[in-house]
Amino acid sequence: MSDSDDIDLGDDGGHDAGSSPKKKGGLGNLLPTLLKFAAIGLGALIFIVTVSVITYNIMNKGGKSQTVISDPSSPYIGKRPEYAMYDLIGPVTTKTKDPAPGSTVSVDMIIGYDKDNSEASLELIGRRYELQDFVRRYFTGKYAADLAPEREEELKKEIREQLNTRFLDTARARIILFKKLDVMDMY
């Protein structure tokens, strides 16, 4: 053996001439590329959602509502709405539901309604006597204890609800005021 036999000085790079390296392609090369792009897309989506949620929370101050409900006893309350007033019901005097000798109640009530509602004005004027009867029946069904001054707001709310749901058609009572609400014991 000579030195030239052990060393192959050919240009074939140690490969046989009949076997050339195969290029990898097709599905084997495409799958890792698709997975790589899917992972990049998923990462981008997660990043965008995270940034959006953080930005939304910062804009909303940690999720707190931006509507502030003020304390009703606060002196800084917005302008109260102005209402047109219907006061033609007149004073109504009737007995209460208390057993004999019972009590007498004298009421002079005002109904506040929307200022720009001319139909409400016409309806209230047209139902004047029905309103007087409603007031009489309402207070006849109450005990003297129900008419105590500390229950006045409840009375106003109840009267307003009954007028709006059972009595008035187009008009809406917005506020109820008492010019007079006197309860007298009968002896």
Provide keyphrases for this structure:
alpha+beta, 187 residues, 5 helices, four-stranded antiparallel beta sheet, Tetrahydropterin Synthase, Chain A
Q: What does this protein structure show overall?
A:
This protein has 187 residues and is an alpha+beta fold. It folds into two domains: 50 residues; 103 residues, Band 7 domain (Tetrahydropterin Synthase, Chain A), CATH 3.30.479. The protein is 40% helix and 18% strand. It has five helices and four strands; from the N terminus they run H-H-E-E-E-H-H-H-E. Strands 1, 2, 3 and 4 form a four-stranded antiparallel beta sheet that branches. A hairpin with a 7-residue loop joins strand 2 and strand 3. The longest helix is centred in the first third of the chain and has 33 residues. The model has no long low-confidence stretch (mean pLDDT 84).
